Amino acid sequence: QVTFTPETVEPLCYKAIEAVLKDKMYNPIHVTPWVDEICSRVTKDLIDMNKPFKYLVSCMVMQKNGAGVHMGHSCFWDRTNDNVVVARWPSERRKDPNARMVCIVTVFGIAF
Q: pTM of this prediction?
């Protein structure tokens, strides 16, 4: 039995985010290409794992200016095999007081 394990997928998300956003300053002109690149990198790494899952990858990049953001998900799935990962950057473990933007990558893994 194959299970979508967040512990395996979360590092892929942070790797993609760091590769694209590290040392960048927020610029709305560049956000769309950054989001596309992050989603592509995560999706490629997931496919390379060669697991029997369908994936849904989403990414949000926003300027860090004190505004709040609220997100929610609702799913009906097999709790044994399916799961979701939400990777926030900078993460709670790697807080960066100088960060000028926030990135949230969400990955759903659904067994087929």
A: 0.91
With b for 16 or more beta-carbon neighbours within 10 A and e for fewer, the 58-90 pattern comes to bbebeeeeeeeeeeeeeeeeeeebbbbbebebb
pLDDT by residue for the chain (112 residues), tens only, comes to 689 999 999 999 999 999 999 889 999 999 999 999 999 999 999 999 999 999 999 999 999 888 888 889 899 999 999 999 999 998 766 666 666 899 999 999 999 8
In what helix (H) or strand (E) does residue 101 lie, and over which residues does it extend? Answer: strand 101-111
Report the chain's terminal Cα–Cα distance, integer Å: 11
